[in-house]
Structure formats: C-alpha cells, structure tokens
Amino acid sequence: MVEPDKLATWANAITVGRLLLSPLMFWVIPDDEFGSWISFVMWMAFSSTDFLDGYLARRQGTTSAGAFLDPLADKVLILGASGGVGHLAVQVAKARGALVAATASAGGAPRWRCGR
User: Fold this and answer.
1) Core-most of 11, 40, 56, 91, by most CB within 10 Å?
2) What pLDDT score does 108 carry?
3) Tens digit of each residue's pLDDT (9 = 90 or more) over 80-99
C-alpha cells in the first residue's frame, strides 16, 4: 500500500498528465457547431485515463494528493469540453459537481456519499 501523503505514484502521474494535457484538447475544439473528431478522440482518451488511475489508486492505495487532483482533473475536462460539446450529459455532470461542492462547502457530505 502507498503512504497517504506520497505524491509520486502512478495514479497521480496519470491524473496530472490528464490535467496538463486538457488545454491541448480545448485548443483543438473548433468554433463551429459540427465539432471535431480530434477533440472527441482526445476527450475519450483522457476520460479513459480516469478509469486507469482509479484502478491503480484502488489497487495501490489512495493518496491525499490524488483525492484532490482526480476530481479537479475531471471537472477541468468536463467544464472545458462543455464549451465545445454542450450536450445534456455534460450539463447534468456540471450540475452534480456544483451540488456536491455546495454541500461540501456548507460543512456536510451528501447522504448518498455517506453510505446511508
């Protein structure tokens, strides 16, 4: 198992890579309404790395840095892509993220997150 305060793990490296490469995907999203296959393929690749780093984190142990960075990278990917994609699923994900953030900042976790 990995120490919870360790920064250099494979899961964290994948998450940081996704976070740092996301602006490249935003740059290739075109301004027209037809979208871009390049940005779609990049979004799918970056989204699949979320599964991979989650698998590694569960297998090797989670870290406090990973607990912060992974949701951050997810939100950057979803919020950035919503400027070019605009689908209902993206809007629902944004609303869910805002609800969780508002609830957590109010001092409590949602009941569905507590396993009750």
Assistant:
1) 11
2) 55
3) 766 654 555 566 667 777 77
Please compute Rg for the chain using Cα positions: 16
Nearest to 15 by CA among 95, 74, 96: 74
- Euclidean distance between CA atoms 38 and 114, whole angstroms: 39
Show the domain range for 66. Answer: 1-85
Nearest to 3 by CA among 60, 70, 68, 50: 60
Note the residue count of the chain. 116
Same domain, 40 and 66: yes
Q: What is the pLDDT, as a whole number, of residue 63? A: 85
Distance CA 42, CA 12 (A): 19
Q: Are residues 52 and 69 in the same domain?
A: yes
The stretch 15-31 carries a mean pLDDT of 85
From its phi and psi, is residue 107 left (phi > 0), alpha (psi between -120 and 50) or beta? Answer: left
Q: How far apart are CA 72 and CA 87, in angstroms?
A: 20
Q: Which amino acid does the sequence have at 12? A: N
